[in-house]
Amino acid sequence: MMIGRRPTVRRMGQLFMLFVMVMITLLLMRINFGIGDSGGSSLGRWVQNYTHSQSSWMLNAIKRIGVPTGIEHVPVPDGPTVSIEVARPSEISPVDTHAPSVGNENARVQDEAQDRVDPHSSDTLGPNLVTQNDTKKDEFFDETKVNLAIDQDDVLTDQKEAANQGLPDTSFNSSVSSLGAERNVMIPRDMIFTPSPNERPLKSKAVITFLAQASREDWKLFPLRDPDWFFVGACLHAYTFCHRTDTKIKDQDDTEFVVMVTEFVPQAFRDALSLLGARVLAVPSIEIKGREKPGDKYQYLYTKLNMYRLENVYDAILFLDVDINYFHQSPVALFEFFNPNQNVEHSYFFGSTREWQDGNGIFNTGVQLLKPSVYHYDSMLKLALDPQGSRYGDQGLLNVYFASTGPHPWTELPQIWNTNHLEVRNATEVESARGFHGKFWSECRFLSAGARGMFSVWAEAMAATRAVQVEILRQVAPGLVGMSLVPLVPGGDCSKWMQITGMTTQKYQTSMSTFAVLSMGTISDAVHKSRDAFCRTFAFAPHYVEPGHTRTMFATLEYALESLLPRYDFVWILSPHVVMRDPHHLERLFLTDFRDMRKRAGLGDVIYAFRDCEHALTGSVILANEGAHKLKQFLERVRSTGQNINDDDVVWELFIQLFTGNGGRATLQVFDRSPWYDFDADHCSTFFHLKNFGMAQENLYQKIPSVPNRGVEFAESAQLPSEFQLFPPLSDRPAKPKAIITLLAVAAQDYGTKYLQDSDWFFTGALLNAYTFYHKPATKLDPSGDVEFVVMVTPAVPQSYVLAFLNLGARVLVVPAVEIPGREKPGDKYQYVYTKLQMQRLEAIYRGVLYIDIDLFYFDHSPVALFDYLNNHIERAHTNVSMEPYFFGSTAEWKQHERRWGQFNSGLQMFTPSLRQFNRLFEYAKDPDYARYGDQGLLTKYFEDNWVQLPQKYNTHHLEERNASTMEPAIGFHHKYWCDCHYMTEASAPSFLLWVRDAQEVRRIQMSQLAQATGEIPDIPIMPIIPADCQMWKKLVPEALKQKVLFDTIVVVSLDNVSPEEKERRDKWCSTYHQANHDFGIAAKSVIQVLQRVMMLLGKYDWVWVLDSKVKIDEATKPFSLNLAKFKDSVSPVRVVAFADCGKEASGSILFSKESLTKLRDISASMESSGNLEVPWRDLFSLVMAKHKDGIRVISDRHDLYRFDQIDCTEFVILN
Question: How far apart (Å, rounded) are the C-alpha atoms in residues 1064 and 1079?
């Protein structure tokens, strides 16, 4: 494969022509500047206009950035003023600036290098094998001036050659940058600078860091992952080199800071870096074929090599890992060591710091000082493609290429600029260090005693970075609500940070959210100062203050909508009389507390308030950006209806009713008294009231019904609805008075061959629950009792699933799927959640129903005892005519903050079915303002004041956060074990083994039924082989699904002369995971006898594995599905598998797949027609090969399936 292109005569001619055309272009530009814009190339003008429109807004924002040194009040047009103070890192005593001598010593890559490599960090070495992708050039556009005289055919040819090799396009665009004297700059066509060289001239040197990837565009809905923290590190670098006084790059350094990104970094993250002053360089990602790690954070290590392609852009580059921190001295001083070797054919320079205490001379590429060179880029890429040439990612590659004993020896830089392994450094080493290489965000608890103080320095730098970002956000135009801010960190205390770091790992993360505080009305100086201090030191939010005159409520809401919500995620409106508490007396950061309030960003129109006074009066309101569209509708409606917008009481009454009148609990969250401010009780009368929030407020306000009692009331029915079907029918098996019901709304017809979505796994939950209630001794329903188990399905569930449930003893109820008009979610796993309402129509069949979600399991205790609550209620209702005979019970939501979806969790419901209730619920569900969030929101709204709380131990969910005390009483375990076994705590993880235990029992029963089946065997879904190891299960599922063997069934066939000891070993192997059945005792005298048995078994099973009697099967250490996936990996379809056990002569076993059945029938028919029935079975494989060579695989690799004695090879199946 050709990598790069060496200079040729033709290429040198092209470069010469390029140089000439650049000079001509410059001359024409000078002429145009002299005579005005009266001519010139329209294409050239289009390019300039397009690039200017793409990035000039960021440049203008950057020009406006001014880091204040104290409180500053900046007027806002027609609005309030802003107060913010930027935190600055504490002063640190300067360290010794004397650099030790530099020497070149041997560097060699050792196999014992550590197994950890980071695309953003070279702190350690490790085996990193990645894959080569085609460069995505289409995603980049040209930001530089284009020389229109270039031969376009040649350029297209060059680009096509590069794309065919999966490498970046090394052709160039030309641009001119001036810095005192003019420099020729040629930028590779597949790279983009933002801002472009036309908007901000390039410097001759660059400090570069690398950000390979970041979260998705909807990153605010998800927990922070490693890529998000690497982005934080890049922001910290931007603060260091563009803002901080003692490390800021000076103009006379002729150096700039650049963040190199791939196409996998969203625009919001790039914009944040640009606004901080960094130049962003977009480059194509580079992966090496044969070293794939798709989806891994180490996937794009080799992309760093793109720096070497910038030889026509920068004279020298200082590369820094994204997790190296420079708090008080700038590494720009390292450019003093730059001294390119001009005595070789291709000039180069490479400097780095030695790995600490490795004793073998390996350097650490977290710091690299280099001279860019396309020649050396091509050479290194060739070396990377050679699996024998280098190992351990880019660091291993560079250590080989720049080895001291090689043609390009490296230069050693002072190690104090790259001080890593902070977990073992002493105080002396830390004091002399200038660069601190470590992930403070996740590893501060591992810092040594000597390095522990650096955490507070890092925290101060983080605070200063966020302060700069807040100031930028305040100054730029509205509309940057997607801007990413670095998280807040409590300074100086790692233990406190580790306690609250949950705000960056909870799914409701708020750590990167943006906040603004708006003071409405006229406030006193004391109130003003308290809010300034709160914003400056506690919340890191700008403080917007009303001007001298008092605004109306309508004007305040209008200002928040137009000026603040487009900028910020949240706006906190404070009434004039609340005084913020002293931030130094508050234990936690504001956003940490707010995390507990925040419910689920992006999925609701949310407003937050507090019960600060009696009668539900609140001194403040927090508006979320998600509610902006609803607020806009409200303001427009008030104006159009002619309401008095100057009457604050009227406006607030209408506003709060908008958020509470219909489905209020889904849009308005009311919490206990705010812990962040105080007030005089006399001022409560001026606070905002929450009278329509559905609360009994000492009869001060009358509760307004949320939805009128409307809708068609259908006639009560005493019969099973005609569109329902019960299997077995009631005539064959009468119904019990009560039922435990679960719902399977959808299932995949092709479950064995498709990539399974979450909903495709739900059928396994129904299988396991059927086992729980009809087979497991500890939880089995009493056959003489009054409860039965029912799987409710829709017509979308194939018949094969119904048969599987019936085979396990469950009753199956087929009902029409229910979708609410206007709330359709086609293809979504929650598409048919309202189908659960169909259970209410079963009043003629069941007196009581216990509904359980399909992922709610009872491993050792039955939930039948819950029916006592229903029975007691019914008995009391019979003697008390004032009691409602209808019963509804559920378990409370475990987390307070998740109650926006409802007070109870509808994964467990106990109720008396009622057609009247169904009619009402169905009608209310049609009203988009009545309730949201599916059936749970509907039910919790409908039964909000009339439900019975059942013991939560029967519905223990959120296993990813449970501790021992909350797990110990658990009876019902609500968790998707099939996909979330790794998402559990130490206390809840043992329940995975309970799930595996019961799932394996389900497979045992199904495999036993399969062994006993006769005649035509229907294709029904069977529980897959599940190991009692989460990591192995996570490995098995994708591999087995890819090869379509996850749900395959296996039978082991032993010939009649197998020894008793070997039969026992094979029985044990088959019973491990209940992965296979064992068929033994067949005659082994002829091929036809074996064939007939195999063909009969292939009518039942997906695989038949015939073992010679002499082989000794080994104990199963992993599911056989992994072996099947490996067997099918290279040949498809695989029909027959044999093993080169005795060289290439014989196999101790032969494996047949169901796809081989037709071929085997052909061979059998041929043998019977020819009368050749005495062929020994050892010749079976040879006959198969002679008739059909396709789909046959011989495994030549050593395997751990069985052992044998070489002397027995003469009795094995012949391969030749």
Answer: 12
The 8-class DSSP code of residue 893 comes to: P
| DSSP letter for each residue of 338-356 | ---B-SSSS-B-EEEEEPT
Which of 298, 296, 286, 264 has its CA nearest to residue 134? Answer: 286
In sequence order, the 6+-apart residues with CB closer than 8 A to the CB of 664 are 692, 693, 694, 706
Strand partners, 792: 743, 813
Write out pLDDT tens, residues 473-483: 888 766 665 56
Identify the burial level of 948 via C-beta atoms within 10 angstroms of its C-beta, where 0-12 means exposed, 13-18 middle and 19 or more buried: middle
For residue 204, what are the CA distances in angstroms to 173, 454, 689, 861?
17, 33, 62, 73
Q: For residue 173, what is the enclosing H or E element?
A: strand 172-179
- Cα–Cα distances in Å, from 846 out to 291, 650, 674, 739? 60, 50, 48, 7
Q: Are 103 and 361 in contact (CB under 8 A)?
A: no
| Structure-block tokens of residue 593 | 């507390």
Residues with Cβ within 8 Å of residue 1172, at least 6 apart in sequence = none
* Longest distance between any two alpha carbons in the chain, whole Å: 110
- Do residues 984 and 970 touch, judged by C-beta distance below 8 A? no
CB 910, CB 889: distance < 8 Å: yes
Short-list 603, 607, 602, CA closest to 624: 607
Using DSSP's 3-state secondary structure scheme, residue 851 falls into: strand
- Which residues fall within 8 angstroms of residue 333, CB to CB, at 6 or more apart? none
Burial zone of 177 (CB within 10 Å; 0-12 exposed, 13-18 middle, 19+ buried): middle
* Dist CA 620 CA 520 (whole Å): 10
Q: Are 763 and 803 in contact (CB under 8 A)?
A: no
What tokens appear for 637 in the block?
Answer: 């409606």
d(CA 16, CA 149): 12
Buried b (16+ CB within 10 A) or exposed e, 1090-1104: bbbbbbebbebbbbb
Using alpha carbons only, what angle is made at residue 972 by residues 965 and 898, rounded to the nearest 5 degrees?
70
SS3 sequence, 175-199? EEEEECEEEEEEEECCCEEECCCCC
Give the three-state DSSP class for 771. helix
Q: Quick check: helix, strand or coil at residue 259?
A: strand
Residue 708: phi, psi to the nearest 5? -60, 150
Q: Residues near 1178 by Cβ (< 8 Å), separated by ≥ 6? A: 1146, 1211, 1212, 1213, 1214
Tens of pLDDT, residue by residue over 20-78, are 565 655 554 444 433 333 333 332 332 233 233 333 333 333 333 333 322 233 333 33
- State the Cα–Cα distance between residues 118 and 648, nearest whole angstrom: 57
Write out pLDDT tens, residues 723-761: 999 999 998 999 999 999 999 998 888 776 666 777 789
Please state whether the predicted TM-score (pTM) of the whole model is above 0.70: no
Nearest to 184 by CA among 173, 195, 170, 194: 173
Helix (H) or strand (E) holding 207: strand 205-211
Tokens 């099918």 belong to 1128
The residue among 373, 341, 363, 358 whose CA lies nearest residue 413 is 363
- Tell me the pairing of strands 1050-1055 and 1103-1107: parallel
